[in-house]
Amino acid sequence: MQARLAGLVCAAIFAVCACASLQPEQTGNRLIGSPESSVRDTFGAPSERYRLANGATRWIYSRQPLGFYVYAADFDAGGKLTGFRQMLTENEIYKAQVGVWTKRDIEERFGKPRDPIQYYPLMKREAWSYRLYRDGYLPAHFSCYFDDSGVLQQTMIIVDPLGGGGHGRVR
């Protein structure tokens, strides 16, 4: 009887872990209202943590550089989860404000770049790149270009004709 109960407990734990890794947004959204400890128990330690201007906290779960996803878990001032979403979507990327956002703003939304950072001396631009799926299934790169003072000057999404095999290069 105890062996069967232990087996059922193990199966339940496995199912919860599988859901968290296979459907992170759905799993995260079911946790809305839960404390930080529940999110950490479900998804593990975040890649990064940021204190946002509105007093909220954002945890970043990055699957970069080889993955195509970056998830954000947002918590209110009391430490309760208020939102969980995939950040590397065209909708989120198009919110970037050229001439206004800084490296910090990009990091708060998409995490630190995991691909090598490039610098183009003739343009005087630093380039960060993130992998994503464009239109839901096309491997692509989202690139951000910053001036020497760290202000965003340009963004672009480039579909990768090789299916993602050449990540890390800004084209």
Task: Describe this structure as you would to a colleague.
With 171 residues, the protein is an alpha+beta fold. The protein has 2 domains: 2-86, 2-Layer Sandwich (Beta-lactamase Inhibitory Protein, Chain:B, domain 1); 90-159, Beta-lactamase Inhibitory Protein, Chain:B, domain 1 (2-Layer Sandwich). It has 5 helices and 8 strands. The protein has helices spanning 2-22, 24-30, 36-43, 90-93, 103-110, and strands at 48-51, 57-62, 70-75, 81-86, 118-120, 125-134, 138-146, 152-159. The strands form 2 sheets. A 4-stranded antiparallel sheet has the order 1-2-3-4, sandwiched between helices. Strand 6 and strand 7 (138-146) form a beta hairpin. Helix 1 crosses helix 2. The longest helix has 21 residues, at 2-22. The chain is globular and about 50 Å long. The chain starts with a helix and ends in a 12-residue tail after the last strand. Residues 5-21 and 165-171 have low confidence and may be disordered.
